[in-house]
Write a structure and sequence with these properties.
Layout: H1 26-29, H2 42-51, E1 55-56, H3 57-61, H4 78-88, H5 102-105, E2 116-122, E3 138-140, E4 145-150, E5 153-158, E6 163-167, E7 184-190, E8 193-198, E9 202-207, E10 213-218, E11 227-234, E12 240-246, E13 250-255, E14 261-266, E15 271-276, E16 282-287, E17 292-296, E18 302-306, E19 313-318, E20 324-329, E21 333-338, E22 347-350, E23 356-361, E24 367-372, E25 374-381, E26 389-403, E27 415-420, E28 427-433
Antiparallel strand pairs: 1-2, 2-28, 3-4, 4-5, 5-6, 7-8, 8-9, 9-10, 11-12, 12-13, 13-14, 15-16, 16-17, 17-18, 19-20, 20-21, 21-22, 23-24, 24-25, 25-26, 26-27, 27-28
Length: 444
Amino acid sequence: MAHDLRDDLELVDDGYDDYYDFDFDFDDAIGGFVHASGGRDGDAASRQNRQMDDTSALDYKEGKDMQGIPWERLNYSRDEYREMRLKQYKNYQSLTMSRDGLEKECKQVERKETFYDFHLNIRLARSTIVHFQLRNLVWATSKHDVYLGQNYSVMHWSSLLQRGKEVTVQNVQGARAPLSRAQISAMAMKGNLMVAGGFQGELICKYVDQPRVAFCTNLTGGSNSITNAVDIYQASSGAARVMAANNDCIVRAFDTEGYSLLSQIAFPWPVNNTSVSPDGKMLAVLGDSSDCLLADSQSGKEIARLKGHLDYSFSSAWHPDGRVVATGNQDRTCRLWDVRSPSRSVAVLEGRIGAVRGLRYSPDGRFLAASEAADFVHVYDASAGYAAAQEIDLFGEIAGVAFSPDDGGGGGGEALFVSIADRTYGGLLEFRRRRRLDYLDCYV
């Protein structure tokens, strides 16, 4: 993430009224609520927004908008506004490389499948995006438990109890290297361990079932380098590790026992994202370069240079079998790379409106969820060669997506969560995996 983007950063203050709506405000874009007089009433619209409730699967089946948007009271229909949005949305670019020929590279995908059914939109649970390029702010630890980065803290939402609870990530008594309030720019979860990165270079580790912060430090010793990404992974030895990628061009790895610094690997550009292969041996490194790197996770030695993207990359995900890594880029594509033959990507998946800023594989490897900066989440069927997909069509900036983990039965991915950060129509949307019930036909 380039150092000269400081003017583009949006710092979000506490409080409902202070949510940043990311260049998307229905009251402005659509003309507000239409009254009999033909005028608009901002106060009335504001009151209406605050009174809007959640949307259930039954509400949705009966015709209610998934996000609760009252299209019947607005100046445009949903289809009309979608068409306007596709034409007018400006995708952010860091590089001005020619896109000629890119469309021909992209795989033809049928996007009419339904792998996940809408279940619920919870309006009280939403993420806060601190930096517009960082969107890995939603994690699920079960099909009922979701954690969302929310400005200076993390929110735990239980879909089972329909209740949210703040998880404090600020320094408390007993933690090392005391820090001031940290604004959450990145996060990761595995089991009970939560790791958060801060806007001023902080790294915070906490077990969510314990009251105290286990470890916190400032990675850079200064206040000018944002922590762009954090990862929790299992090293080839089997030990749990924490990795942090920072805007100072350095990737750092820590153990999870004494939180000793194990390695510092320098790269030639700011590192926006890292992910470690399932066997713990390879590291995908993405940053302010059109190239992505595969490196040895311990030494940082370059294994392969992945060439094909046309802008900076901000997301990556490994297939559970460890053979394919997906990378998301500001050129509006996700590329799939076979690490056994990384000289060129094996497929290019094109987005609809903006940068691919979030990537997650389901635990069983069946699906790849690719979230764009705004409006669209694509769920690709990896078992069908990524030629079939479900397109989830929303409105607003997407803070992250998450599949529920393996519940012990070897499957996982029963729930898919999508967080919309828009201050008016934001919320946490829950989708449930559709299962084939052909065996019931014998009873009909």
